[in-house]
Design goal:
Elements lengths: L1 H8 L4 H8 L3 H10 L5 H11 L3 E7 L12 E7 L1
Antiparallel strand pairs: 1-2
Length: about 80
């Protein structure tokens, strides 16, 4: 939900941001609501389109990796 809050703080509608990042509105909505494995390039386009910074933190799971998970780390986004 942080991405949706970030977009709203920027004063952009979902449609406006979708045009700026050149994504389908439905894809952008999925990203904001269920984005679990987002490409860094997509986050970069999102931040550039909103013109507001986001912090990205990658935290190693240190032994908490579960075989069914793709990533061995947790990625967090935070408002800057």
């Amino acid at each position: 939900m942080l991405l949706a809050e970030h977009r709203e703080k920027s004063g952009l509608t979902l449609s406006q941001l979708a045009k700026r990042v050149k994504m389908q509105k439905t894809a952008l909505s999925r990203l904001e609501n269920h984005g679990e494995d987002i490409r860094l390039s997509t986050i970069t386009r999102y931040v550039e389109a909103t013109n507001h910074p986001l912090l990205l933190r990658i935290i190693p799971n240190r032994g908490r990796h579960h075989p069914s998970r793709k990533l061995a780390a947790t990625v967090e986004l935070a408002s800057a």
